[in-house]
Amino acid sequence: MEKPANEKQIFGKILKELRLKAGKTQEQLAFDMGVERIYISMLERGVNGPTLTSMLSASKALGIKLSELAELFENRFSNN
């Protein structure tokens, strides 16, 4: 039986899905957010959890509202 994903892993999967949907590489997203590419990689792999600031930067860089990003996370987390 597969272990349920934790909060960091869930956020990372959502971030990667949104990034790919936007047609951006990790490097492009990192540039748009003003962070290093390795930080995006760590978020997507669930190694690091996002800060409120990074969630706001990511939502802006991906062209969505912070509330939409939070709702995606909340829905996925509550169904886990």
Question: If you had to describe this structure to a student in words, what would you say it looks like?
Answer:
The protein has a single domain, classed as Orthogonal Bundle (434 Repressor (Amino-terminal Domain)), CATH 1.10.260. The chain has 80 residues and is mostly helical. The chain starts with 6 loop residues before the first helix and ends with a helix. The protein is built from 5 helices and no strands. The chain is globular and about 30 Å long. Helix 1 packs across helix 5, helix 2 crosses helix 3 and helix 4 crosses helix 5. The protein is 69% helix and 0% strand.
CATH architecture: Orthogonal Bundle
CATH superfamily: lambda repressor-like DNA-binding domains
Number of helices: 5
Number of separate strands = 0
Mean pLDDT value: 94
Strand content: under 5%
Largest sheet: none
Q: What is the first-to-last residue Cα distance?
A: 14 Å
Task: Spell the H/E element sequence.
Answer: HHHHH
- The overall number of domains is 1
Helix content: 55-70%
Rg, nearest Å: 12 Å
Q: How would you classify the helix and strand content by structural class?
A: mainly alpha
Q: What is the CATH C level class, in words? A: Mainly Alpha
Contiguous low-pLDDT stretches (5 residues minimum) are none
